[in-house]
Amino acid sequence: MSDLVIVLLCAAVALVVALLAAAAAGKLARLDGATYPAALLRAATAFGSVVTLTAAVTASLAALPR
User: Fold this and answer.
1) Which range of residues forms the domain containing residue 38?
2) Do 64 and 51 touch, CB atoms closer than 8 A?
3) What is the pLDDT of residue 14?
4) Contacts of 54 by beta carbon, 8 Å cutoff, 6+ apart
5) Coil, strand or helix: which one is 64?
6) Where are the alpha helices (H) located in the chain, listed in sequence order?
7) What does the DSSP 8-state code read for residue 51?
């Protein structure tokens, strides 16, 4: 496999994980009694956090010597 295919597959997996985390956060917020806008805000925050964490881990791994 080429490096581009591997990078694209990893990016797709990271986005799916971020979407799952956002959906879970939104559902848990709604079960906790939050309004729909508040639950959506919590879901968006969770999505952004997972994407940011993925970017930080990727950057740190890229900086390691091979």
Assistant:
1) 3-62
2) no
3) 94
4) 14, 17, 18
5) coil
6) 3-31, 36-62
7) H
Is residue 47 a contact partner of residue 22, using CB atoms and an 8 Å limit? yes
| Residue 33 token pair | 């009694």
What are residue 53's phi and psi, to 5 degrees?
A: -65, -40
CA distance 28 to 9: 29
Q: Which two tokens stand for residue 34?
A: 């939050």
* Residue 17 · residue 50 · CB < 8 Å: yes
Query: Would you say the C-alpha torsion 8, 47, 18, 66 has a positive or negative sign?
Result: positive
Q: What does pLDDT average to in each consecutive run of 10 residues of the chain (66 residues)?
A: 86 95 98 97 97 92 84
> CA-CA distance, 22 to 1, in Å (whole number)?
31
Q: Write down the pTM of the prediction.
A: 0.87
How many separate domains does the chain show? 1
